[in-house]
Amino acid sequence: TDTGSQKDRVVAEEEWLRKWETGNIWFHKERGHPLLQKYLDVLLNGRSGLRIFFPLCGKAVEMKWLADMGHSVVGVEVSEKALKEFFAEHSLPFCEEPVPEISGAKKLQTTSGNIALYCCSIYDLSSSIVGKFDGVWDRGALVAVNPRDRQRYVSLMITLMEKNSSYLLVTVSYDPNKHKGPPFYVPESEIKSLFG
């Protein structure tokens, strides 16, 4: 499978932070993703009160939507600005505390406790820190991680999933020779080999 010139492309954490600082967040959806609404029943599978993980969450509005339905939401994002904007835009009071296991990391959590957002690299997380999840909404994470880090990313995600968890993944399909990414092109064959 040809991923064009993308396989060696690296987007540094600083580049993502700069996008948030300058407001260059074309990837953020103000109204929530229509595919999550369409496939919500697949994610929930008739269950309620789930723990749902949002990798590279930004300020995704779906986090509040799912929390309002009674689910517990955990997200991770390198940009503290994105996380604070999420709480501000939804008028959610939150408290902030350090994460002892991760140097420099913070956990921002609603005072009601149903939304906990970690400000750190996703690769610093583990199930011993955040627990395991019944569902994952990967709207822009796999397509945002550097192509060389995909196996590392997927290996981590698998360790964060409960036995019967659901994983909703959104990717994009295009000619990778015409766009350097992100979002990166992840062919279906690679998704199958990564997740098994």
From TrEMBL:
Protein name according to UniProt: thiopurine S-methyltransferase
Location (main, coarse): cytoplasm
PANTHER family: THIOPURINE S-METHYLTRANSFERASE
The keyword Transcription regulation belongs to this UniProt entry's keyword annotation: no
Organism: Pygoscelis papua (Gentoo penguin)
Keywords assigned: Cytoplasm, Methyltransferase, S-adenosyl-L-methionine, Transferase
Domain of life: Eukaryota
GO terms classed as biological process: methylation
